[in-house]
Write a structure and sequence with these properties.
Oligomer: single chain
Radius of gyration: 19 Å
Bound molecules: zinc ion
Length: 282
């Protein structure tokens, strides 16, 4: 074990040097001077630190980050699991629903004994088992226009895993107003979408989709296989880590359109709309 830790420390030091060189060129997150990784952290995050794109600076940024995950359902489950596992220091999870039997085939944070339990509590329990070194903050509330501003204020990133257009537009408006970066996603049947937004810099969700579709079927009508939601949620989690760690290639000024029946991923470009009611004045 000691030699392995030695290897990981060497690797982390090398990653820091690479990160230092890269920061000069790309203004990536800067690791605080007092950032010692404990042996347990080196073990826990070693496979991330082994990546040339993910060094001490990225891990430090993650540990300092405050992230809100809206919804702990089919998308929120993989998102919260991956962000907790990766070491996001303060992870808020928001859901006002209780676990139902019909959720379990796709909502991996919730198990059969959790039926009837508030999802925020069910999710928090699993995430604390997964990573006891981070802070999990469960909120048993529904995000609405009236409370959205207070909920997103002070967050470094919001990941919208809700399943309602009204919630998406409320997240969009609040994050734009507070200039908090966020990741949107949706899944229906075998199709999905993922989009990242840096308010004031890149097209927002309303720039890309000025109005909700009139007759979009809900999950109960359209149906979904668990892994299809898992793919979209995993891409959303990856996008969140990309934004937090300053890793290039984020889905900004556009979105990824996902067709899981045809195994096709298409990147669609968008631009900011000058008259956008949410971000036009930023
Ligand atoms: Zn906009």
């Amino acid at each position: 074990m000691n030699s392995r830790r030695g290897f990981l420390r060497d690797l982390a030091a090398a990653a820091a040097q690479v990160g230092s060189a890269a920061r000069e060129a790309t203004a990536e997150p800067v690791a605080p001077a007092s950032f010692p990784l404990s042996d347990a952290e080196l073990d826990r995050y070693g496979r991330q630190l082994a990546l040339p794109e993910w060094g001490l600076a990225q891990q430090a940024a993650l540990r300092e980050a405050r992230v809100l995950v809206v919804g702990t359902g089919a998308l929120g489950s993989p998102v919260a699991l991956y962000l907790a596992g990766a070491g996001v220091g303060r992870l808020g999870i928001l859901d006002d629903d209780a676990v139902e039997l019909s959720n379990l085939h796709r909502q991996l944070l919730h198990f059969t004994p959790d039926v009837g339990v508030p999802k925020a509590a069910s999710a928090a329990a699993k995430l604390r088992f997964l990573n006891p070194d981070i802070v999990i903050e469960p909120y048993q509330v529904r995000l609405e226009p009236a409370n959205a501003g207070a909920l997103v204020e002070g967050q470094d990133l919001v990941v919208d895993c809700s399943d309602a257009f009204a919630t998406r537009y409320a997240v969009n408006a609040a994050c734009c107003a507070a200039r908090v970066p966020f990741v949107e996603a949706g899944v229906s049947g075998f199709t999905g979408l993922v989009m990242s937004v840096r308010p004031g810099e890149t097209a927002c969700y309303r720039c890309a989709f000025p109005a909700a579709p009139a007759d979009a079927p809900g999950c109960a009508e359209a149906g979904v296989l668990g892994p299809a939601a898992g793919v979209v949620g995993s891409l959303q989690a990856l996008e969140a880590l990309r934004l937090l760690g300053g890793v290039e290639g984020a889905l900004l000024d556009g979105f990824l359109q996902i067709d899981l029946l045809g195994a096709a991923f298409v990147r669609v470009r968008t631009t900011r709309r000058p008259g956008c009611p949410d971000c036009g004045a930023l």
